[in-house]
Design brief:
316 residues, alpha/beta, 11 helices, globular
Length: 316
């Protein structure tokens, strides 16, 4: 996709926010909260799901990824469109909390093997069937994992239909085997300082060369505005205005919401505000909104309508 299309998506979200006063983002459906083989799981399965979407957290993450503001916003739209979702966490629960990559085996890779057992459990105990289309959404380390998961499960005969890697290239093992052979919805952040965006662009080209649909969406930088922070359920209009005032006082943005310093310096100013005791325990959520404003490395629901449409298109 072109940057013009990405900008249109951003403006569409801004318009939605203006019309709705950017109400706090809350789950529109209660999630099931359970354990599978000792690992946290969140899920929601309607009576006749049109598809099952797996969610994969990034490094240092957990299944709680699906309880964050931006992820909840996307999940609300997926559920409204008739999809089920499930999220668990990496076997690695040590310091890094990363998914096991590089090994495409559903037997020897501990994460893929457990996901296969989780899929079997869902088929046996919910409205998910063996033919329910499978989708995946992953962020950062989870983006690499969603590519490995998707291709490995598809190669094993599972009905994987499409994947959506956010803010990271596909796993090197998948690239070495010729790239994704699945439809893919790629999202990168224009100011991402953690991942090589050129590799993501290469992955898009490789996927298209394999004869399947691939879209690239770019999360562009936004002006600093109050509405970003009122998306956090515990941040009211007064506190949102305070956050903006503090950031303007820092000199990183001007009163019109335009960034005045390099992205790295603005990110430091943003971190200093997000970690203030006043905003605890919501500093991480505030920080997530600031990453969206800066188009830095962080999950964004700004293209949620396009992602749902892409998944729907693969079912036609």
């Amino acid at each position: 996709m072109t940057s013009i299309a990405s900008l249109r998506a951003m403006f569409a979200l801004v318009l939605v926010c203006l019309l709705s006063a950017c109400d706090p983002v809350l789950p529109q459906t209660e999630y099931d909260d359970w354990q599978f083989e000792g690992f946290q799981v969140y899920s929601h399965v309607p009576d006749s799901p049109r598809g099952l979407v797996y969610f994969f957290h990034g490094s240092l993450g957990s299944a709680d990824f699906v309880t964050k503001v931006e992820t909840v916003d996307l999940i609300n739209d997926l559920i409204a469109a008739g999809y089920a979702f499930v999220a668990t966490e990496s076997t690695d629960r040590s310091e890094n909390k990363r998914w096991a990559l590089a090994d495409p085996s559903l037997v020897s890779n501990p994460d893929l093997a457990r996901l296969a057992r989780l899929q079997a459990y869902l088929v046996d105990n919910t409205a998910v069937t063996g033919t329910t289309p499978i989708f995946g959404v992953g962020m950062s380390n989870g983006a690499r994992m969603v590519s490995l998961f998707g291709q490995s499960f598809a190669d094993a005969g599972y009905p994987v239909t499409a994947v959506a890697p956010f803010m990271a290239p596909v796993d090197a093992t998948v690239r070495a085997s010729g790239g994704l052979r699945l439809p893919a919805f790629f999202v990168l952040a224009e100011n991402d300082s953690l991942v090589p965006n050129d590799l993501i662009e290469l992955d898009v080209a490789m996927t298209q060369a394999n004869g399947v649909a691939a879209e690239l969406w770019v999360k562009h930088e936004e002006p600093l505005k109050d509405w970003r922070f009122t998306r956090v359920p515990s941040i009211d209009a007064e506190e949102a205005a305070l956050i903006v005032d503090l950031l303007v006082q820092s000199g990183a943005w001007n009163a019109e919401g335009e960034r005045q310093v390099p992205v790295a310096d603005a990110a430091l100013a943003a971190s200093a505000v997000a970690t203030r005791p006043r905003f605890a325990p919501d500093g991480q959520a505030v920080g997530g909104q600031l990453k969206n404003i800066l188009a830095e490395h962080g999950f964004s629901a700004i293209n949620k309508l396009q992602l749902v449409a892409f998944f729907n298109a693969q079912l036609e």
